[in-house]
Design a protein that fits this description.
The chain contains four helices and no strands. By secondary structure, it is mainly α. It has two domains: about 35 residues, no CATH class; about 50 residues, no CATH class. It starts with 9 loop residues before the first helix and ends with a helix.
Length: about 90
């Protein structure tokens, strides 16, 4: 919301936010089972962090200068239709 860009890569996002536990969680995800679980002792910490981050996100959404809705819906739809038609060879 600060930049108007979508960044879904947690490693890249954490370059800015520097949450120390993100590195460890990403490492767990990369080097362990797909559906690994947290130890029971970690649950409360991550619950509090989740709630804190959601509150921060909601506050920043309230203060954001971004429009509530995209003004390019028709253009995006047209692009997707053209890509799909191209992929099926029409």
């Amino acid at each position: 919301m600060r930049t108007g860009k979508v960044e879904a890569n947690l490693v890249v996002l954490n370059d800015e936010f520097r949450l120390p536990y993100v590195v460890e969680l990403v490492e767990r995800k990369v080097h362990s089972e797909e559906k690994g679980t947290l130890a029971s002792s970690e649950g409360e910490f991550h619950k509090r962090e989740y709630e804190r981050l959601v509150a921060q996100l909601e506050a920043e959404a309230h203060d954001s200068q971004l429009p509530d809705e995209s003004g390019c819906r028709d253009a995006i739809n047209d692009l997707l239709v053209r890509i799909r038609l191209q992929n099926v060879g029409l």
